[in-house]
Amino acid sequence: MSDKKLHIVLVGNPNSGKTSLFNCLTGLNQKVGNFPGVTVDKKSGNTQLPGGEMAEIIDLPGSYSLYPKRLDEWVSYKVLLNQDKDINADVIVAVADASNLKRNLLFCSQIIDLRKPVVIALTMMDLARKKGININIPELERELGVPVISVNPRKQKGIPQLKKIIEQTASQVYQSPARDFIDNKSLAEISIEEVKKLFPEISDYAAIHYLINHESFVLDTEKQAQVETIEKTNRFNPTKTQAEEIMQRYGRIKHIMHSSVSEPDPLQKTLFTEKLDNVLLHRRWGYIILLAVLFLMFQCVFWLAKFPMDWIDNGFAKLNYALSSVLPDAWWSDLITNGVLAGLGGILVFVPQIMILFGLITLLEDTGYMARISFLTDRLMRSVGLNGKSVMPMISGFACAVPAIMSARNIENRKERLLTILITPLMSCSARLPVYTIIISLVIPKTYLLGFISIQGLVMMGLYLLGIIMALVVSYVAKWFIKINEKSFFILELPTYRPPRWKNVIQTMINKAKIFVIDAGKVIMIISLILWALSSFGPSERMNKATARYQQELKQPGADSTVAKEHFLTARLENSYAGILGKTIEPVISPLGYDWRIGIALITSFAAREVFVGTMATLFSVEDDQENNSRLQDKMKAAVRPGGMPLFTLASGISLMIFYAFAMQCMSTLAIVKRETQSWKWPLIQLFYMTGLAYLMSLVAYQLLK
Q: Which tens digits make up the pLDDT trace of 564-588?
């Protein structure tokens, strides 16, 4: 075996268990980047082979065949055809779903005919057995001419054997099959021979792909012209060749299935999966069940997160009080308590809700229900210019719009993909969750319908549904303005129902919490510290006047020092740089029910929505007496306007939540939209339409409710 690091690529149909196998082989030794020149995710990781050698595993995007249609399928195609200069596969591991072997063998047979070192990894053997399918693996191996190994990544079974086979295949213990899977020469004999004179190292089957897709290959100008000449001289017909190839392959696959696979009578009673689908995908009950699932999800976010959130909130309030009692009266003490500690509390208090939300979403994905949501909503999606595949990015948008927009690459139709990108940020992402939570707790009573249905949970669900409804409305309107005419197809494979992998759920919850604390936390802390400085300092003339008024108020007969200090702290905040900024925009936002303090939060949270809570924590800590160890929620509830009216009322609270539901307050999302659309036109359209929509809807809500 050579000294260089082995490169092993994993390929397979979508939902074949390829990603589970990748996770099993690499464990935590993974990294995610982008394939050079494209925006498709590139997942890679390291694994140790039995001989002690480290190998790099590269998880290629799922494909159904070597005839790519989507951008991500082109990535896999170019790697397999040696057209990716960065990846040269030493071994190809083709992952095949044993319960759908006939369909999976099409792609596997094409890869085998490329004449490269190949190992077939059979997954979902347990499901195949439940279906009554028995596979004779030695016979299948003999028919295919390459090693076949059964694996179960979920239970870590067959992994050592797979690693050993990979090592042996890389050492050329296994040779390529004696003959091709199909008769390539019968498809285009003369053309193949001429192409192979130009590229002697390729197989007969690869030569066919050079004829079909050479324009997309990395070839010099002379070679491109020569292949083009061969194609025209021999009147090569790509469509006819592809059709004949597929017919030949399925003829051979039929023989293999007959000799190595025994299947039950197709008239046998349907499996549990099919019975369950009859209910969950019902034209009427399916939608009711979907709403019930969403309702339970948001109820759980409140029910389960309440206790840890209260512990964290109370803990920070006590810590702040304790530090304020022992630290000297200095600017750096104020920085620690009202800057660092307030910002940190604003981050950590929402970690329980984010973990629970992501855990529940992972449960839906793991069990197979998430794909059913796409299937169920396809008809609705089409009526507004989208298709069922748009649902997955939209649902992913509940977590974060950035990866959700990137996942829209799976939508083949350009118009539907663009519409999906434009509306996905209207989904209420996890960054909005802290805003919703704290405002709901302030203005919505903690009461229950029928003794168990939380009103606060219903409002939370309503905000998420509001985002979905508005996204559909925007898509319906936008589809008339985007002039791209392209046929649309919706083909989706429904995975079987499976019990959730609790280890995967817990790992996802932990990872998402880390991402929120580290990535969002950095932004929140930086802005909290900047805001502390802007809130604590201001023009010397204004600040001196505030101090003079405070001293004069203390000299008044019968003056209350506590009230005087409250007036002084409020005056200092109003005359600080942050206060001046808030007062400047107050005339614009006052029709929405907001004052200058909320205005400051709106400005700071344009970098990231979740900064709102950190801003509130900093502002109310700076404005509040350090000896007060109240929770942020209590401070916000006690906040009043100059006339004594509460700052956060039902009208202003609803208005504020609607503003955050619709506004584009995420620089990262705008950047990813620019990258995905290769233009600043669409992110700017997104920024203006979402901000305008947020202002208009908030204005209507406040004026109706006040």
A: 766 677 777 778 887 888 888 889 9
Q: Is 384 helix (H, G, I), strand (E, B) or coil?
A: coil
Amino acid in position 416: E
Q: pLDDT, tens digit, for every residue of 58-78?
A: 999 888 889 887 777 888 999
Q: What pLDDT band is residue 39 in, cutting at 50, 70 and 90?
A: very low
CA torsion sign for 104, 107, 111, 114 is positive
How far is residue 190 from each of residues 20, 114, 180, 196, 439, measured CA to CA in Å? 43, 19, 17, 10, 73
Q: What is the pLDDT of residue 629?
A: 47
For 213-267, the pLDDT digits (tens) are 988 888 888 888 998 998 888 888 888 888 888 888 989 999 999 999 887 755 4
In this prediction, residue 264 carries a pLDDT of 72
Domain 6-170, CATH among 3.40.50.300, 3.40.1000.10, 2.60.40.1120, 3.40.50.150: 3.40.50.300
> Counting beta carbons within 10 angstroms of the beta carbon of residue 592, is it exposed (0 to 12), middle (13 to 18) or buried (19 or more)?
buried
**Count of CA atoms in the C-beta half-sphere (13 A) of 299:** 14
Structure confidence by residue, pLDDT tens digits, 468-496: 899 999 999 988 888 766 555 555 566 67
DSSP class of 428: -
**Strand segments (E) across 98-230:** 118-123, 134-135, 148-150
Residue 59 gets which letter from DSSP?
E
Distance CA 5, CA 60 (A): 18
Q: How many beta carbons lie within 10 A of that of residue 85, not counting itself?
A: 9
458 C-beta neighbours (distance < 10 Å), count: 17
Burial 136-175 (b: 16+ CB within 10 A, else e): ebeebbebbbbbbbbbbbbeeebbeebbebbbbbbeeebe
- Asked if 424 and 399 count as a contact pair (C-beta separation under 8 A), the reply is no
Maximum CA pair distance of the chain? Answer: 109
DSSP run (H or E) holding 569: helix 561-575
For the chain, the structural domain boundaries read 6-170, 185-262, 285-478
Say whether pTM exceeds 0.85: no
- Among 17, 261, 263, which Cα is nearest to 122's? 17
Strands 30-34 and 41-48: antiparallel
Q: Which residues contact 159 (CB under 8 A, 6 or more apart)?
A: 24, 25, 151, 153
SS3 call for 491: coil
What angle in degrees, to the nearest 10, is found between the helix axes of 351-367 and 433-443?
120
